[in-house]
User: Which sequence fits this backbone?
């Protein structure tokens, strides 16, 4: 059965955002082109690693001798996006992801695949019109400026979580914190 690919090439918007309060946030990778919006849930750590690796790819491209691509070292001001997520309807929860560079189009490429848990009966697949399960994935191709802006916003969203206790290094919850400083 063919995979349902939610493909976005040069999307109008691609962001990481959250729903919920710090300590109980759900992270989403949301992509929109026109009226087509796809939101996939992912872990905070996946979000942070995605931003880190995108910056690494872009930073490497800058150092390549004879590089014909104009890669920004910072976020172009016109690409800054601090708006909240749009209406969130979770397409799937992300398991495996891949990240790459397509030199033919000068795009950073993100692929996200759903978690599959066959033993629990949750295949992470959607249903087609006949009720049969259809494997799906998200494919995003974005230019270098948008990728740099995406990475910056993602780091800011990840860092906007609960404050860290200066004594023990653990997150401080809104309803209090029992600190157990490390032994010296």
Assistant:
């Amino acid at each position: 059965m063919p995979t349902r690919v939610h493909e976005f090439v040069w999307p109008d918007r691609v962001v990481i955002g959250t729903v919920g309060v710090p300590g109980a946030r759900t992270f989403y990778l949301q992509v929109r082109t026109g009226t087509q919006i796809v939101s996939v849930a992912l872990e905070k750590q996946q979000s942070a690693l995605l931003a880190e690796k995108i910056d690494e790819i872009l930073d490497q491209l800058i150092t390549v001798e004879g590089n014909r691509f104009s890669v920004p070292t910072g976020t172009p001001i016109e690409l800054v996006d601090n708006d909240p997520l749009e209406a969130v309807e979770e397409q799937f929860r992300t398991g495996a992801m891949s990240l790459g560079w397509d030199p033919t189009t000068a795009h950073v490429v993100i692929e996200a695949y759903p978690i599959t848990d066959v033993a629990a009966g949750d295949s992470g697949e959607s249903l087609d019109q006949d009720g049969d399960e259809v494997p799906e994935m998200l494919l995003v191709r974005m230019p270098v400026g948008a990728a740099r802006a995406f990475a910056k916003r993602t780091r800011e969203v990840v860092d906007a979580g609960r404050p860290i206790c200066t004594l023990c290094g653990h997150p401080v919850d809104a309803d209090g914190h029992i600190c157990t400083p490390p032994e010296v």
Observations:
- Helices lie at 44-63, 144-159.
- Confidence is low (pLDDT under 50) at residues 119-124.
